[in-house]
Amino acid sequence: MDTNVTSEHLPRGWHKTFYTLWIGSFITGMGYSMTMPFISLFINELGHFSRLQLNLYSGLAFAMTFISQAIVSPYWGSLADRKGRKLMCMRASGVMAITIFLTGLSTNVWMIIVLRFLQGAFSGYINNATALMAGETPHSKSGWVMAAMMTAGVTGNLVGPLLGGTLSGWFGYRIPFFITGFLMLVVFFATWFITKEQFTPITKQALKPMGELMHKIPNVKLIVVMFITTMIVQSSVMSIDPIVSLYVRELMHNQGNIAFVAGVVAATPGMGTLVAASKVGHTMDRIGPLKVLIWGLLIATLLFVPMIFTKSPWHLAFWRFLLGLANAALLPAAQTILTLDVPQEAFGRVFSYNQSFQAAGSVLGSVMGSMISGVYSYSAVFAVTGFTLLVNLGLVLLFRGKKTTPTD
């Protein structure tokens, strides 16, 4: 069982562990965004496909990771509670190093799809790194640490497409996979030798059932709502990301430097999140994550309204930047609520359930965005996404119960 860290004192080696896991999460996020935007172009080089076939294979390659992740995550969460989160970070980075490198060696589309499925089944570095830091950090600093860990993946997602696009243009689509595989191997060894976790392994027989642990949580319904929040917020991101460049092309009437403008529009939410993350984290530690989540959902919902009616890609970029500011208050706040209300011996399982809901949100959002934009219009995607966040806000207000503060 983990040592219960509730005082202001940080465990020995905490800063080295934090910086190592932050960099590891950054590289994981960067590696994903370095390779995924170009996977359809890579698949296109492996055969002669019709437009329908290319879209289908690209969709399969994209979705397979999240499908396997949603299925397998609860098992890894149970193992994390018995063996520790450090081992799970090593498992994720080690297997990802192999599968991503082998993807670069693929000779047909089915190799890519199978390897993407395996990658998803063994993934989870960022979530396990976040859970590890949650267990090592005093509750009074949880908000800041959760927000800081989020910036790692966000920053990686900003850098990745630029680096991947440059490398692909110079050396071909395989090179980003090789480089990402090598970097994940470096993350594996850094996590192994540098990070420290205060964890005492327990046997499978001694592991308390989740049902028994859930009785210790003062507001179980709120925890379930946090899982749903994770799914809806992730869905809201994934429903928009795949169609942003197409929407920009429509707004620019297929004229001008569409790729550059689309890149700016795609990057602005991440920039906004980076700007706001630290401030939001400290605010959570001061007033509690539940209040921050409620305001974040309200503001995010309202920001989708002008996006529906905008006629300029630069106006869209502005509203998406503001959306990024609000997004800094969403997933970190939900994760912080989980760390404050859930017993530490259940962290691994709870964060794995959260990861399953996040993966489900990725699949749901991608399908929803594609269907709505195909049947109706791109602007309709923003309307439906804003409505789902409004429903999410209603659920949080309905089941918030007692106040969740850093001292709970």
From TrEMBL:
Keywords: Cell membrane, Membrane, Transmembrane, Transmembrane helix, Transport. Signal peptide: none annotated. It comes from the Bacteria. Its main location: membrane. Residues 17-404 form the Major facilitator superfamily (MFS) profile domain. Pfam families: MFS_1. It is found in: Cell membrane. It is a multi-pass membrane protein. InterPro entries: MFS, MFS_dom, MFS_trans_sf. The chain crosses the membrane at residues 20-42, 54-76, 96-118, 143-163, 175-195, 220-238, 258-280, 292-310, 316-338, 378-399. GO terms for cellular component: plasma membrane. This is Multidrug transport protein.
